[in-house]
Amino acid sequence: MSKKNIEECVRVSLEAYLRDLRGIEPDGMYDMMLKVVEKPLLEVVMQHADGNQSKAAHWLGLNRNTLRKKLLEHKLIK
To answer: Which class is 3-73 in CATH?
Structure first.
């Protein structure tokens, strides 16, 4: 799947989200989107990196300590 396809999936999902609100104004969409995208991103990358945080951090372009903090925030590690 290309970057363009991922962008289209996000666009379609956001359109559906806003439509489902039926005129109610959303609040905090930016933070909501970061949270709902970040967790599956971390899960998939960690799985493909065989749980290796250093490798996953490199793939994500993050410092390993930053990755560890995010994994803790999303309760993906203890």
So the answer is: mainly alpha
Asked if pLDDT for residue 30 goes beyond 80, the answer is yes
Q: What are the residue boundaries of the structural domains of the chain, listed by start? A: 3-73
Cβ contacts of residue 56 below 8 Å, gap of 6+?
42, 45, 46, 49, 67
Alpha carbons 29 and 23: distance in angstroms, whole number: 15
| Mean pLDDT for the stretch of residues 50-54 | 98
Task: Look at 77 and 3; give whichever has higher pLDDT.
Answer: 77
CA 31 from centroid of its chain's CA atoms: 11
Report long-range pairs for 65-72 (Cβ below 8 Å, ≥24 apart).
67/42, 70/38, 70/42, 71/42, 71/46
Q: Is the pLDDT of residue 3 over 90?
A: no
